[in-house]
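User: I'll paste a sequence; please echo it back and then give the predicted structure.

Assistant: Echoing your sequence first, then the prediction.
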Amino acid sequence: LFHLCMNIIMKPLKECSKSPMYMVDPIGDLCRVRTIYGAHMSDLPEMLVLACVSQGCSPISMARLHKFGDYPAHPLRHGAHTLQQIAELQMRCDVTDLKALKVTCSEMGLNGVLDPFWEDWKFADPCQFLAPDALHQWHKMFMDHVVKWGRMLLGDVELDRRLSVLQPRVGFCHFSSGITRFKQHTGREQRDLQRVFVAIMAGSPLVNTQILRAFRAYLDFVYLGQYERHTDQSIELLHTVLTNFHANKKALSRAGCRDGKKRKGNFYIPKMELMHHVGYFTKLLGVSAQFTSDVTERCHIVFAKVPYAFGTNKKNYPPQMCRFIDRLER
């Protein structure tokens, strides 16, 4: 359904990608242009839908679940390869037989979409327009995995104690009660925790040098990836810190941070696989700061949470929220 709707909406742009049209640029000059699919801001589930691949596959590369922790990166998954797989799928099974279709799609790593909206969009390729998203990839991985590893190493009590005794600083969050009791974190709190994370982990006998290097390399990657301007040297440094992270990550497995029936000491983390392609996308599309969804996610507060909390009686709330937003904009 998503691809069908996008196909209808994007039809004029797809036609323009094949036959250039005259358009006026910001300074008033008339230019002959093609509408190329530049970048799409999305989180991981949306990227899988756009790339027409199933869960357990990378939307950018040929890596599958058990290869997500590999280094270096796997080859890119080009749109032509996906279209070839879809054609093969239609030859292998009857697409009207949903049970057989589901089984075959699972084997081939597809999600069942037969007509991607980008298939006839000239120059459009998922491995070129699925831009990295700092919020849903790097910051979320930090809270979902890196902080969790820290809690497993130090324990909740010790981690909270180390945070609470830090010197308060003006303009930054001071975690006087720690973080382990939090159910939700704001983006600001995540970034303030990143600033002190290496410091609070250092000095513990349970955190050896390799583990500390892995934590530092990951946070170096997050900060380098958010540069507002990149050079060949900074992109090379981005690859260097990623190499350092992978060189030291096994220490986390040896410390028991990746134990479990499914993990078994491995790093089957989709967001970790996507980190390989940040340098590639930076060269192709520009700095990743322009594609982060921080700005759009902020709209959830302005146009959803606040109107619901202060503009409704919590019953039959959609029309009340619309009225609240309408009055807010006048």
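The CA atoms of residues 311 and 324 lie 6 Å apart. The chain has three domains: 2-129, 134-291, 294-329.
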